[in-house]
Amino acid sequence: MGKEATIWEHLEELIIRLRRALIAFAIATLIVPFIPISLSSYTPLLYVVPKMVLDHVVPETIEVGGHIIEVKLTAESPFAGLRILMYSAILIGFLTSSPYIAYQIYAFIEPALYPHEKRWIKLGGVVAVALFLLGVSIALLIVLPFTYKVMFILSATVAADRLVSYASLEDIMSSAILITIATGVAFEVPLIIFILVYAGVVEIPSLTGNVMRALLIASAVIAALISPDPSGVGMLLLLIPYYMLIVVAVTLAKFLKSRKT
Prior knowledge:
261 residues, alpha+beta
């Protein structure tokens, strides 16, 4: 049996793996965004991602009560476009380097795991990626379009006998990326709850009464923090699938735990 590593050796290994993860993120941020999408004319991924996000979340016009509101995006400074490209590059770099970052974390804890724990972690990694992508999809396709629509309606003004809503291009893009990532991360909470309940760290006797209300309130708080929609409808659009996932996580954890017992 080999000599057990000291705490300082573990810390040294952790620093090395974190450094590798940081280098991978930096390389992905500097190289991947400039990969061309079209070979006929140089169109890098860096230009495609912001356009895709804006096309999904910002409508050109909004019809309300028979009136048409035109949406105008403006650049507040000459450097706004540069900052938008920087935000997009960071997002692309994070998404493309995340599998390698996850591998470095797994490689660090792998020696201390039993074979069945390794299988569970690998399965949990797949579920975590699926939940993150689900959260990102809900944010881009449902929450953000509705949220911005409400914001544009509330900020509409009359200009040259027509209704126009002005918004900062940089603010829209930066908030869209922030909310998208925050939603993806928030959708990891059901997996964490499943692990805590299954491992017996958190005891939930039944999904009735106060437990259901507590889970609903916690879900509503998280949904409200993510969605800036002042009408509250955007929060509900996020709350419904989010709460259902948490209930499913608790129910599945209790079922598997009872079978194991």
